[in-house]
């Protein structure tokens, strides 16, 4: 589960999509020791496609983590 503050979203209409992307690829990251880097790249690609660059930066700088 990921907590995403509203001010991190460029478009509030993307909230469900952002959560869906994060859960799909990173929701069980502790259970995927191999290939995790590929999942992160997929997340970055999908978030970039919907214009959510702030979320990408928060993942990169370690601010956003799976709770």
Written overview of the protein:
The protein is built from three helices and no strands. It has one domain.
Looking at this protein, list some descriptive labels.
3 helices, 67 residues, single chain, mainly alpha
Note the topology.
Layout: H1 15-26, H2 36-49, H3 53-60
Helix pairs in contact: 1-2
Question: Secondary-structure element sequence?
Answer: HHH
Weakly predicted, low-confidence segments = none
Q: What is the CA-based Rg, rounded?
A: 11 Å
Helix content: 40-55%
Q: Helical stretch count?
A: 3
Q: What is the averaged pLDDT score? A: 87
Q: For the terminal residues, how far apart are their CA atoms? A: 6 Å
Number of strands: 0
Classify the beta-strand content into a percent band. Answer: under 5%
Shape: globular
What structural class results from the helix and strand content? mainly alpha
Whole-number count of domains: 1
The major beta sheet can be summarized as:
none
Would you kindly provide a brief summary of this structure?
This protein is mainly alpha-helical and 67 residues long. It contains three helices and no strands. The protein has one domain.
């Amino acid at each position: 589960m990921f907590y995403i503050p509203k001010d991190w979203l460029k478009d509030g209409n993307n909230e469900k999509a952002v959560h869906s992307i994060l859960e799909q690829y990173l929701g069980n990251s502790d259970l995927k020791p191999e290939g995790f880097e590929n999942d992160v790249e997929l997340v970055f690609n999908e978030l970039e496609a919907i214009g959510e660059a702030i979320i990408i930066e928060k993942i990169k700088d370690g601010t956003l983590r799976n709770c």
